[in-house]
Amino acid sequence: MVRPVIEALEQNGITKVAFARLGDPAVIPLWFGEGDTVTPAFIRDAAKAALDAGHTFYTHTRGTPNLRDAIKSYLDGLYGLDIDPDRITVPGSAMMGVTIAAQTAVTSGDRALIVSPHWPNIEITYRVAGAQTDAVRQRETDAGWQLDVAEVIHAVRPETRSIYINSPCNPTGWVMGRDAQSELLAFCRRRDILLIADEVYHRTYFEAEHAPSFLEVARDDDPLVVVNGFSKAWAMTGWRLGWVVTPSRLCTPWTALSECFNTGATVFAQAGGVAALEHGERTVATLRDQYRGGRRIVEQHLGNHPLIDLRTPEGAFYAFPRVEGVTDSLAFVQGVLAEEDVGLAPGYAFGPGNEAHFRLCFAQSHERLAEGLDRVIRYVERHANALDRLPPAD
Predict the structure, then answer these.
(1) Spatial contact of 114 and 107, defined as CB atoms under 8 Å apart
(2) DSSP 3-state of 92
(3) Is the pTM of this model over 0.90?
(4) pLDDT tens, position by position, 277-313
(5) Are 8 and 123 a contacting pair, CB within 8 Å?
(6) Is the bond leading into 4 cis (omega within 30 degrees of zero)?
(7) What is the C-alpha to C-alpha distance for residues 88 and 99, in angstroms, rounded to an integer?
């Protein structure tokens, strides 16, 4: 018999829009979290060399020794740390890391708290583990998207066993400061609440070489799982390769759960990950410059439009504008897709309070991005007097 929570699952709002036109060359795809830059050749070559060398067998469940060593060296150098290598696991994708972390923290009767707006699959991950979810929403201010740690702490219930934070944030671009990270981690330490820190956009930060990381303020035994991966900083979305840093005492449970969920990451893909970490700083810098230019194009197109309210993101490569008059974000993005051939993500998919919003990814090439934004504006202006009366989505 299928559990009711599983039977009631629906696909997230992004794929609900995208699957109907996925791969259509007429569509400018701003709906997913990736650009149109192919993974650099030196990373692909490393994976191909491993494949040609016959690296097609099972390997260590928690990641090849070479990759785990490379991750340690990368994190140590980036943050000025000396991370215990036993804390590092490569279970597969970063989303796999979030899923396993949720499984370690919650079960039936527990609650999880999500800082929102948030990636749609996070809520499903907690629910599948048996927990109920609450959300604390970032605030829209004149200074951009903001969140006070006190708001998160106030939202914690006695049954809360895990808190999820994504910084830099998909979809808002909000970035949590180091003092706020210290305050929240100290609270989780006192209450023994597992903090899942999703830092996959750690190198897509427009104020410095990297965003603040919980690793910089954490103890080895803190109730903290930091999730990261290769998808965004090195243009490796299709590789499904990520890593986690956990408390040392969870080495054995993560080994067991990695075996259950995925038996370990694809072995020859891990060779590409080593190359990315050891030789990829120029790639990281080049992509960040491209994303910074994309953000500038978004600001130029949408920043002063009378019907669009845009908060400039500090990090990641998304904008999450609000459109005056929109009450059904799914109907809005489906209308843009049907009439203008631009793929957007509906705001409702990112948690409560976002029906007037849509998300767009500005990681695409600049010419294509600008054309897509021109089309979105054209749609908004064409329907300016009836945005609250768009035909309901199917």
Answers:
(1) no
(2) strand
(3) yes
(4) 999 999 999 999 999 999 999 999 999 999 999 999 9
(5) no
(6) no
(7) 16
